[in-house]
Amino acid sequence: MPVKQKKESGNNILSIDIGGTSIKACILSSKGDLLSEFKKLPTPKNSTPEEVIKTIKELVSSLEDTFDRISIGFPGYVKCGKVETAPNLAKNKWTNVNLAQQVSNLFNRPVRLINDADQQALGIVSGIGFEIVFTVGTGFGTALVFDGELLPHFELAHLPVTKTKDYDDYIGTKAFEKIGKKDWNERLERIIQIYKTVFNYDTLYIGGGNSKHITFELDHNIHLVTNKDGIKGGAKLWEVAEKYHVYTTRPNDK
């Protein structure tokens, strides 16, 4: 997606994507056009809330364009602006963390914080029928959308898929590195078959850093997508109604 140099005023959005491997940020117009470079930094090894916020602050300092609202995609379960789980970040440090409020206070801007797969989905889906988005990266992210409306988030990554493994364990990066590309592809094919049977989706989108390793032929209604394909999700997040897990956090009065 080409960068548009023309700046808008009043509606620009800082879009942040927090991942287990990297944290990314850019400035979007209200329509989802990219107004700045797509910047990223490695996720801190000690990925506590304090370190993640420090990295976000560093990323934002490198962006020249101004912004008026903030969208954040987070790799875990988020409810009303608070993080409840973060399985691929610092262990036991992310329970009931009011991340949206902290970021809102830091930049003095309103914030909407949702699951990262949900945010990507808003920028990817066609808006027709029942659509599912997978992200296969450090872990296994999922989002469910019906006729363009984001449904309540489920942490499907933590459903058991074998006697000893959930989806994160079964298909995440650690599994890929341990079992290799061939067996990893066989596992992903099995997961797709499970989802076809359970959800009977109209369209499935697969993104995330490990999607580039897919070697098998995909069904006609399954599409590969990239992080940049979903970048408009940061703008779309501000178009949807406040319900389910979409919630606006505003700066505390100083």
UniProtKB/TrEMBL annotation:
The secretion signal range is: none
Q: Which Pfam families match?
A: ROK
Enumerate the InterPro entries for this protein: ATPase_NBD (IPR043129), ROK (IPR000600)
Name the CDD domains for this protein: ASKHA_NBD_ROK_PPGK
Family named by the database record: Belongs to the ROK (NagC/XylR) family.
Protein name, per record: ROK family protein
